[in-house]
Amino acid sequence: MRKKTRQIFVGDVGIGANSPISIQSMTTFKTSDIENVVKQINDLEKAGCDISRSAINDMDDAKAISKIKEMTNLPFVADIQFDYKLALAAVENGCDCLRYNPGNIGSSDKVKKIVEACKDKNIPIRIGVNSGSISKEIIDKFHGVNADSLVASAMEEIKILEDMDFYDIKISVKSSDVNTMIDAYRKLSALCDYPLHLGVTEAGPLYQALVKSSIGIGSLLKDGVGDTIRVSITGDPIEEVKAAKAILKALNLRSDGLDIVSCPTCSRTSVDLEKIVEEVEKKTEDLKINAKVAIMGCPVNGPGESKEADYGISAANGMGFLFKDGKTIKKVKEEEIVDTLVDVLKESNLNEN
Ligand code: SF4
Fold first, then answer.
1. What is the spatial distance between Cα 227 and Cα 195, in angstroms, rounded to a whole number?
2. Over the Cα atoms of the chain, what is R_g?
3. Which of 21, 208, 246, 318 is most buried by its number of CB atoms within 10 A?
4. How many whole angstroms separate alpha carbon 257 and alpha carbon 261?
């Protein structure tokens, strides 16, 4: 069962309590490159992203936020490293959340100014601890970078904000090591009821990132821990959103998007099933449809799988049989399988809406 955390709002997206698990990603252009950042955020939204984050490295980046917000819909998280003036400028320019660690900012006067500005505009703060941001004192005390030092660091940051009566907080304790990350989030979840932002940091290139994130984020969500997620991939952030959607869909935590059940192919396969599945995936990625489709390379398992799915294709000898609820509704040539299936799905989507 999902742990009931406090609810916060990043723009109009609820995080924690009963809010759906949201998907986050990060832009890759310099934030003052407004044209490219706007395009990227709008592409992320189209792919299914709920919240977008951008690094704010100088005043030009901070000032760009208000213009970016005019041309995008996703809530905007400003990622600040050290400079409190950039945090204040980001708030002033309309960001919907700050990602910054008060311990990095320096004097408590500066932190207080940021906290007051956030209170004033109802903007939450994400405390983002990761393996590289733990202080030497905490590393020494807990004998290295591990789950305990990550959690201690997060608790220290939380206390700074709580001492200023600020509770509009979400927290991440990311590590590039999956076991450490899982342990840290479990421990942190037992110690506080703030919403948690899950992620394996620096997860690597596509395949490694997918595996690490599926295990790390997936295990925690399965335990009921976590309120918002980011899959970190070295590459296009759109892939991060696709991966995050697939993780949530696999756990039945998100309903939009097609769930494709396809066979691994074998010597019985008599059509180019890989190409068919690839094309179906590509042509349906923008469909906001909640359906399960079985695409099978021979008639052996086709009808059976399609009984479990909303639609099914079983292909044989250059032909495709389209099933609905286990019954054949169409028989088409191999080259027509994709478009026929996509048309049927679009039609069912129209009927549902
Ligand atoms: Fe082989 Fe048919 Fe199974 Fe696909 S569904 S793996 S073609 S036996």
1. 6
2. 23
3. 21
4. 13
CA angle 52, 282, 303 (to 5 degrees): 125
Kindly give the number of the ligand 1 atom that is closest to the alpha carbon of 305.
Answer: 5
Q: Give all domains of the chain, ordered by start, each with its CATH number.
A: 8-250 (3.20.20.20), 258-352 (3.30.413.10)
Ligand 1 centroid – CA 305 distance (Å): 11
Q: Which residues sit with their C-beta closer than 6 Å to ligand 1?
A: 263-266, 268-269, 296-298, 300-301
Digitized pLDDT (tens) for each residue of the chain, 353 residues in all: 899 999 999 999 999 999 999 999 999 999 999 999 999 999 999 999 999 999 999 999 999 999 999 999 999 999 998 899 999 999 999 999 999 987 777 788 888 999 999 999 999 999 999 888 888 899 999 999 999 999 999 999 999 999 999 999 999 999 999 999 999 999 999 999 999 999 999 878 899 999 999 999 999 999 999 999 999 999 899 999 999 999 999 999 988 778 888 989 888 888 899 999 999 998 988 777 788 899 988 877 766 776 678 888 888 888 898 988 778 888 999 999 999 999 998 887 655 55
State the CB neighbour count (10 A cutoff) for residue 317. 9
Nearest C-alpha to atom 1 of ligand 1 is from which residue? 266
